[in-house]
Amino acid sequence: MYKNLIAALFALALSSHPVWGQSKPTTTDPLKVGFVYVTPRLPAGWVHQHELGRLALEANLKKQGIQVRTQFVENVSEGSDAERVIRDLAQQGASLIFTPSFGYMEPTLKVAADFPDVKFESITGYKTAPNVSTANARYYEGRFLAGIAAGRVSKTGIAGYVASFPIPEVIQGINAFALGMRSVNPNASVKLIWLDTWFDPAREREAAITLMNQKADVLAFHTASDAVMVAAQEKGKLAIAYHSDMRHVAPQAQLLAITHVWGDYYSRRALDVIRGSWQSTQTWGGVREGMIKVEAFGPRLPKRVQTEILRLQRAMAKGSLQAFTGPIFDNQDGVVLAQGQVMSDEQIAKMRFLVKGVVGSLP
Question: Are residues 156 and 109 part of one domain?
Answer without folding.
Answer: no
